[in-house]
Amino acid sequence: PGSNCDRDCVHAVNEALGAPVVRAWHKDRELPARTTSVILPGGFSYGDYLRCGAMAALSPIMSAVKRFADAGGPVLGICNGFQILCEARLLPGALLRNRDGQFHCEDVELEVTAGGVGVLAPFDRHQRIVLPIAHGEGNYTADDATLERLEAEQRIAFRYVARDAQGNGAVNGARRGIAGLLGGPANNVVGLMPHPERRSGAHLHGKDGLLLLRGLIGAGERYVEARA
């Protein structure tokens, strides 16, 4: 309850890329049969009470999502979906209130710092893209040890290009400019604050987001082949 970007994701994956999409209800205890990949959409699940994504992380469906991710299945969490992945401990760290306390809805330039890996296979490493953000809690934080581990394991998926003098995201204060992360046993879990589904066609002023969604579908196909 409170997720509101599911229709956008369905449109982008189904209409723009021609892949079949099935919606899963949060009280379901299993993913739909023949699931090849999972998207946790953006929104304001449970009104962002407690912490963003904290209540949704306890929804019954998340146990199935975790089993799927642990088996190597590709999972993409967008905005609130990224927050849910962190709260469910599928990704480390947490998303805090934007440093200036404001809600930001604007285009941002990103560096794809882990291109060519897993779901990010369609991207070149250090490729720059533009995606829109729409969040009040995009200030990524983690302790220094976690940040060093993410750097060493090359699990920072996206960084904001615009950063302050301390290297944090200028738009929200995210530590080390982190806009998205990789996780899972095979870098099969991706979370990011910007919205790829909102930049997935000429009518949306660009197609940079299609690369990520195409990468998710491709990773799902490889996952199914590996298990056949």
How would you portray this structure in words?
Strand 1, helix 2 and strand 2 form a beta-alpha-beta unit. This protein is 25% helix and 20% strand. The protein has helices spanning 6-16, 61-70, 80-87, 144-152, 208-227, and strands at residues 38-40, 75-78, 94-96, 104-112, 127-135, 139-141, 156-160, 178-183, 189-192. It starts with 5 loop residues before the first helix and ends with a helix. The longest helix is centred in the last third of the chain and has 20 residues, at 208-227. The chain is α+β, with helices and mostly antiparallel strands and 228 residues long.
Mean pLDDT: 96
**Sheet of most strands:** 7 strands, mixed
Structural class: alpha+beta
Characterize the overall form.
globular
Radius of gyration: 16 Å
The percent range for strand residues is: 15-25%
Widest beta sheet: strand line-up: 1-2-9-8-7-4-5
Fraction of residues in H or I helices: 25-40%
**Stretches where pLDDT falls below 50 for ≥5 residues?**
none
N- to C-terminal distance: 35 Å
Series of H and E elements: HEHEHEEEEHEEEH
User: What is the tally of beta strands?
Assistant: 9
Number of helices: 5
